[in-house]
Design goal:
The chain has helices spanning about 30-55, 70-75, 95-100, 130-135, 155-170, 185-195, 205-210, 215-230, 245-260, 270-290, and strands at about 60-65, 85-90, 120, 175-180, 235-240. By secondary structure, the chain is of the alpha/beta class. The protein folds into two domains: about 5-265, Rossmann fold, CATH 3.40.50.300; about 270-295. Helix 1 runs parallel beside helix 9 (about 245-260). The radius of gyration is 23 Å and the shape is globular.
Length: about 300
């Protein structure tokens, strides 16, 4: 699969109208559900076990989108299949008073993966360059002394985020980011489905509709964010999110590529421990036949 065509190159100026929210990929839903996705998830699961066992490197996954774009479902259908011990999922909501009393990246640190883990940010540090900008929520206390106008803070934050993600990569943690590119019409359908289906009412928030009124503002902010923060070390992938199953397939394939780049391996046992292991294998096999029934270990 050619995932590169969904990747935003470093310094590329992004116009979301040039990206499709759905496309003719030639794959039937049954093909994705019954063969492609299960095969990819199986491969991803094996690579993740190696990552966890080796415990040398990790991956930080960022999921960002408008409401109802499919982030939660991607976690449920893909990442929930992986080893839970090697997985860490965090959803960043509205900052608390404690979080606001620190620098804006402070709250992200607790959500970062350990070596051997895949850490998933369902909404992320990118919230700090999205919602505050759309709703003009940036307080004066957050403005550096040398910045005279609020609007001058955004290029600074983009640079800080890029530096932070480069720091992660240089310390052994790959950073991969997925932007769910959803059409306004598809969001309308999904929100209505949540509102009308009693079994899905719990997924709906009245704020989802209120935020929809700022759709165009969000798209502009997304474009600038993607343009300034997709780097060679921490790239953004734009998913055609109207097609949920194809987007999940894309995520799985990109994750496989990331893990293959790391190339984790199961740790090899030393020659000394191998000899001891063989002895214990023999003991346990003899135990089954009663050969060592009365032997004290």
């Amino acid at each position: 699969m050619k995932t590169g065509r969904y990747l935003i190159k470093e310094n590329q100026k992004v116009d979301l109208q040039e990206y499709k929210t759905t496309e003719e990929h030639g794959l039937e839903e049954a093909e994705l559900l019954d063969r492609r996705i299960p095969e990819s998830v199986s491969k991803l699961k094996e690579l993740h076990w190696k990552l966890y066992a080796e415990a040398k490197k990790g991956i930080l996954v960022v999921l960002q989108a408008m409401d109802a774009a499919g982030k939660d479902e991607a976690i449920s259908y893909i990442f929930s299949n992986l080893n839970a011990q090697g997985l860490k999922t965090t959803t960043l909501g509205k900052p608390s008073a404690t979080e606001l009393s620190h620098d804006y990246l402070w709250r992200v640190h607790e959500a970062l993966p350990a070596r051997g883990q895949i850490g998933i940010l369902n909404r992320s540090h990118y919230e700090e360059v999205i919602a505050p900008r759309v709703h003009d929520l940036l307080g004066d206390e957050m403005i550096p002394d040398h910045v005279s106008k609020k609007e001058d803070i955004w290029p600074i934050r983009y640079r800080q985020i890029n530096d932070f993600e480069r720091y992660m990569v240089e310390n052994g943690f790959l950073v991969v980011k997925f932007f769910f590119h959803l059409s306004k019409e598809e969001q309308r359908k999904r929100l209505l489905e949540r509102m009308k289906d009693p079994k899905k009412n719990w997924e709906f928030s009245f704020n989802d509709v209120r935020e929809r009124e700022h759709w165009d503002d969000y798209q502009k902010v997304f474009e600038e964010m993607l343009s300034h923060t997709s780097t060679d070390s921490a790239p953004w992938y734009v998913l055609p999110a109207d097609d949920e199953w194809y987007s999940r397939y894309l995520i799985t394939e990109v994750m496989i590529e990331c893990l293959e780049k790391i190339n984790p391996q199961f740790p090899e046992i030393s020659a000394e421990n191998r000899k001891k292991l063989d002895e214990y294998i023999e003991r346990l096999e003899q135990e089954q036949t009663g050969g060592f029934e009365n032997q004290k270990y």
